[in-house]
């Protein structure tokens, strides 16, 4: 049995709960895997099953949690029914640490970070040290400075993060930090959130950029190219910005919110991407002229939560199958 605590109950967290409930029978019948949700927390409160480690939140309770959070209410407003207790504010981290200590080395416990918070990393490191597992949808623990990344990533066997995509550059072995990435912003700093309201940005700011942008599109088109927002890694630099690419190239053919990544060569490689769908082109010694291509949906709550569930299942060998 894989016991999990889900941290964060927004779009991804709720979808993960649905996936867990909907795949229960299939996972058990086809692979002998049972996933028990022992706790769910949002930014302020923790709902914890009573009788942990044996207890778990019932599907009825999980449905109520999803319903409550979909309506915009905090978990602290859960109506008390049998089978769980609610911990608020300052008790949450203490309680999570306590159950990590009590279950980490006995039955095992997986912390699934579906929050968008950069405050979870200390707890995650602590629970990994105790012997728990961690699955991340949240990219922030992996994008903090390189020392923080290397500490958490050193627990490789107990850590999964299929759904976190942008840290690819670190997975390629680059010891870089966010500030080392050259970013070409799509708007000037005087249009940033500190200087302009969202309404002014949309109504007054953006139209002032149209002319310049249209000019770049026209110049690109006259060369048979299109403009894409691309991350390039190579020659000791990591850059994100607008790039002219041939309209007939895989990147050029992406539509709407498609997402493409690719890297080339043994020494130099580049990664190209735009949000949402994934298209990965891999050039290497063996794929010199014709790349290995991987393509498919890359994000959205459903796909992200499915990736998180796959990560949880992938940890199965670290748990006792029969308890
Ligand atoms: N959606 C996607 O397509 C996608 C793709 C890949 C990765 N991701 C990542 O997945 C994560 C979740 O995304 P989302 O769209 O579900 O975000 P979201 O809707 O904003 O939900 C975030 C949830 O995290 C909770 N939270 C905030 N701080 C917390 C803390 N310190 N401890 C525990 N919970 C905390 C929030 O609580 P409150 O409800 O109390 O505010 C909320 O329930 C993000 O890191 C995102 O970058 C998303």
Give a description of the structure:
The protein is built from eleven helices and 13 strands. It has two domains: 2-164 and 302-318, 3-Layer(aba) Sandwich (Rossmann fold), CATH 3.40.50; 181-253 and 260-297, 2-Layer Sandwich (Dihydrodipicolinate Reductase, domain 2), CATH 3.30.360.10. The longest helix is centred in the N-terminal third of the chain and has 14 residues, at 91-104. The protein is an alpha/beta fold and 323 residues long. The site of NADP nicotinamide-adenine-dinucleotide phosphate (NAP) has 26 residues, from helix 1 and helix 11.
CATH architecture of the largest domain: 3-Layer(aba) Sandwich
- Oligomeric status of the shown chains? single chain
Q: Biggest sheet: strands side by side, in what order?
A: 4-3-2-1-5-6-7
**Remind me, CATH topology of the largest domain?**
Rossmann fold
Main pleated-sheet profile: 7 strands, mixed
Proportion of helical residues: 25-40%
Low-confidence stretches: 263-276
Query: Which H/E pattern describes the elements?
Result: EHHEEHEHEHEHHEHEHHEEEEEH
Principal-axis shape: globular
Bound molecules: NADP nicotinamide-adenine-dinucleotide phosphate
Quick one: CATH superfamily of the largest domain?
A: NAD(P)-binding Rossmann-like Domain
Q: How many H/I helices?
A: 11
In total, how many beta strands? 13
**Class based on secondary structure composition and strand pairing:** alpha/beta
- What is the mean pLDDT? 87
Computed Rg: 22 Å
How many domains, as an integer?
Answer: 2
